[in-house]
Amino acid sequence: MRARNLIIGAALTAVFIALAVMSFFWTPYDIATLDIPGRLKTPGAAHLLGTDHFGRDILSMIMMGARTSIAVALVAVGIGMALGIPLGLLAAARHGSLLDEIIMRGNDLIFAFPSLVIAILITAVFGASAVNAIIAIGIFNVPVFARLTRSAALPLWERDFILAARVCGKSAARISVEHILPNIANLMIVQGTIQFSLGILAEAALSYIGLGAQPPTASWGRMLADAQTLVSIAPHVALIPGFAILLMVLGLNLLGDGLRDWLDPRLRVARV
Question: Is residue 171 part of a domain?
Answer without folding.
Answer: yes
